[in-house]
Design goal:
400 residues; mainly alpha; Growth Hormone, Chain: A; globular
């Protein structure tokens, strides 16, 4: 009898899961090509690092606020798919429009528009993914999507380098080619993803929706937020590795090693996004796997505080960092979907994204300041303390 029930149980790897995963791959492939060449493109337009900071900071801020607003709005829709699809269309068109830019202001407008589209699609996409699988498959579904998204980020720089060589470093041509994977993302989402209508649309104001979120989810956000305050951008690891290896290998070789280590980081990121999700579907409490990922961040911070200068130790740091971000992204989404009723999934994913965005901004600024003003050891020690606090709070999480 049990075998019959198991045989009839729908597979988690269905059209919707595959469609969302492939869409993330193509979309990330598209905008990461643009990200790869953006600094050099701005220089060619006569703009420097200050403009890059303004553009990326403004775009990230707009994306964060739009995720929060879209999360509130998407729960009020019976059909979320059109809103999500419009976000992918907007991101694709705006990213391709960078090819027409002739000034830094044009780049700013295009990038902000693209990231606005990215923001409005994210909560609804995650809600559609959660609705497309049973709750005991959240880990695999979200892990699969994160894995493919990361693969897009891995192949994009390689594609950008090839396009630069092929076009004789014509940045406009490279940026125009972002339309190819971008359009593929739109078509994949449009034709593959199937939507289960939201038969109980939410109502009420934004703050009413926030107050309606379960107490256990709000506790979860506190744990995520405290961990996030230490969760610095892993691009800082590239700088750390370059500085640590320069005395023994010279700046050029050290920089090459650092880039190679970051590629290793991304490989483990992609692998453990799925493996962490898979494991979480097979344990009694999903929070245990997420807390284990958080705990690995503590180990990573301890190693960094000891100032490793050898390539093997740095490789361990980058591997741990990749595992941490893979488990973190897949499991935070999975646990959010588990803690909140389906009709509130949009709001849950929107608020989670906002908390993570604040953490990303504050942590990199904070860790960078401590590193510059005092020492790298102090910066990573403080990050480790915050990681430990987030781990303890996650382990203490109780379901309502």
């Amino acid at each position: 009898m049990n075998q019959t029930v198991a045989a009839r149980k729908p597979s988690w790897l269905n059209r919707t899961t595959l469609g969302v995963g492939l869409t993330s791959l193509f979309s990330d492939w598209s905008h990461e090509i643009a990200t790869t060449v953006l600094p050099a493109f701005l220089v060619s337009l006569g703009a420097g690092p200050a403009w890059l900071g303004i553009i990326e900071g403004t775009a990230d801020g707009v994306s964060s606020f739009s995720k929060l607003a879209a999360g509130h709005y998407t729960d009020r829709l019976k059909h979320r798919k059109p809103l999500v699809l419009s976000g992918y269309v907007l991101t694709t068109v705006a990213t391709g429009a960078l090819a027409l830019a002739t000034s830094a202001v044009h780049v700013l407008l295009a990038r902000v528009t693209a990231w606005f589209g990215r923001g409005i699609r994210t909560p609804g996409r995650k809600a559609l993914l959660a609705a497309g699988v049973s709750s005991d498959a959240y880990g695999r579904a979200f892990g699969f999507e994160r894995m493919l998204d990361t693969l897009g980020a891995v192949v994009a720089p390689v594609t950008a380098l090839w396009l630069l060589e092929w076009s004789s470093h014509n940045y406009a041509h490279v940026l125009a080619w972002t339309l190819v994977p971008g359009i593929a993302a739109v078509l994949t989402f449009g034709f593959l993803v199937r939507e289960k209508p939201n038969h109980r649309p939410a109502s009420g104001s934004f703050w009413f929706s926030v107050r309606q979120l379960p107490a256990s989810f709000r506790t979860f956000l506190v744990a995520v937020g405290i961990f996030g305050l230490g969760d610095f951008s892993h691009t800082l690891l590239i700088l750390f590795a370059t500085q640590a290896l320069t005395p023994a290998h010279g700046p050029a070789v050290a920089a090459s090693f650092a880039v190679g280590l970051y590629l290793l980081h991304n490989i483990f990121y992609a692998a453990f996004a799925y493996l962490g999700g898979w494991l979480s579907d097979r344990v009694r409490h999903r929070k245990i796997v997420l807390a284990a990922g958080y705990a690995l961040a503590v180990v990573m911070a301890v190693l960094l505080a000891w100032q490793p200068a050898s390539l093997p130790l740095l490789a361990i740091v980058f591997v741990l960092a990749g595992i941490v971000v893979g488990v973190e992204e897949a499991l935070e989404d999975s646990l959010a979907a588990e803690l909140v009723p389906p009709q509130q999934h949009g709001m849950a994913f929107g608020t989670l994204a906002a908390v993570n965005a604040v953490g990303d901004f504050a942590s990199s600024l904070f860790v960078g300041f401590l590193w510059s003003r005092y020492s790298a050891s102090l910066a990573f020690t403080v990050a480790g303390i915050l990681f430990l606090a987030g781990t303890i709070l996650m382990l203490r999480l109780r379901r309502a």
